Amino acid sequence: DIIPQPLLDQYLSMTDPARAQTVDTEIAKHCAYSLPGVALTLGRQNWHCLKDTYETLASDVQWKVRRTLAFSIHELAVILGDQLTAADLVPIFNGFLKDLDEVRIGVLKHLYDFLKLLHADKRREYLYQLQEFVVTDNSRNWRFRYELAEQLILILELYNPNDVYDYLRHIALTLCSDKVSEVRWISFKLVVAILQKFYGNNASALGLNFINELVVRFRHCPKWVGRQAFAFICQVGMCSLCVSMRAFN
């Protein structure tokens, strides 16, 4: 009743390998690109019409097809709602997390947008996997780590101070020592955002422990770049007024 059945059948047939050989080698990518729009048109009540096609595309041998889906999975989650997302999209999302960097960057760029749609218990499971984003296929792919730091600044609001201290703090400290200055600079903002999280949620003890760790790790670092990092962290922290003067002293 929404769209003509022959039109839907024609769209679903785009994943047929024979069509890629005889019609267009990029046809599967085009199908993946337009899938969120088709899902929105059909509505979540008709997701069953697209589910098999989506799973086929998500396992396509061409990384460009999987990359296209990775960049739009957060939009599809909004269309489908939390229950269908947990049942049908989370397994595919987990697969993308272990894929090539060209695919992983798709989920990384919208990591916050996807995680905020999950229930708290399901969301908490990803705390253990965020560390994996620090490691890339190519260590010179510094923009990947830069994007991770940007996303973590947003993701902080999704977790409580204890989870931030136990899991996200370690990632922030690692990124602060990155070889690329751009990554280090955005990581200083992440560190300050973590301090804001602690002091804004009555977790000053965690904040003080984190500050002491920063002092030991950077203020007394034998390398000048570490001491410079501490100065920059202080600069960002003072400009944002996230720490009281008493705690700063």
From TrEMBL:
Q: Which domain of life is it from?
A: Eukaryota
Q: Which SUPFAM superfamilies match?
A: ARM repeat
Keywords tagged on the record: Repeat
Single Gene Ontology MF annotation: protein phosphatase regulator activity
Q: Does the keyword Isomerase apply?
A: no
What do the Gene Ontology cellular component annotations say?
A: cytoplasm
- PANTHER family in the cross-refs: SERINE/THREONINE-PROTEIN PHOSPHATASE PP2A 65 KDA REGULATORY SUBUNIT, WW-BINDING DOMAIN-CONTAINING PROTEIN-RELATED
Q: What is the protein's given name? A: PP4R1 phosphatase
